[in-house]
Specification:
zinc, metal-binding, Znf_DskA_TraR_CS, Four Helix Bundle (Hemerythrin (Met), subunit A)
Length: 139
């Protein structure tokens, strides 16, 4: 890895600070909206609910990012940072600059995502077959 560990640590800590600010902003904006007090017409209520759900989803995404950053900082301390967890090759510095908490090189990450997509498709197909079989038994 051509970057110094201190530089990567500084980048991760800055990213962590920004992520914490985003989480705090999301939490504050979510607490401003009263949950049980309906206001406006049904469209306003639906819009408010959608905004609240989106805020919660973004909050979850930010918390997940925070967890990845903390794991990367731990790998830095243990001297395992920048090594692909799959093939154990060095992760190119270009990738680490874009995704400082990357755990896999681009090739291994693509392979993992392809495998996850296939597993998801297989599970969805199985669920649809079970639904179809259930409907046939009822009919």
């Amino acid at each position: 890895m051509t970057e110094k560990p201190e530089e990567m640590k500084a980048m991760l800590l800055k990213m962590k600070e920004e992520t914490l600010k985003e989480i705090n902003k999301t939490v504050k904006s979510g607490s401003d909206v009263p949950v049980n007090e309906p206001s406006g017409d049904i469209y306003d209520q639906a819009s408010s609910e959608r905004d609240r759900e989106l805020g919660l989803l973004l909050g979850d995404r930010e918390r997940e990012k925070l967890r990845h950053i903390d794991e990367a900082l731990l790998r830095l301390e243990e001297g395992e940072y920048g090594i692909c967890e799959e093939c154990e090759e060095e992760i190119p510095i270009g990738r680490l600059k874009i995704v400082p908490f990357a755990r896999h090189c681009v090739k291994c990450k693509a392979d993992l995502e392809k495998q996850q997509a296939q597993t998801k498709r297989f599970e969805e197909d199985r669920a649809y077959r079970e639904i179809a079989l259930g409907e046939e038994e009822e009919g």
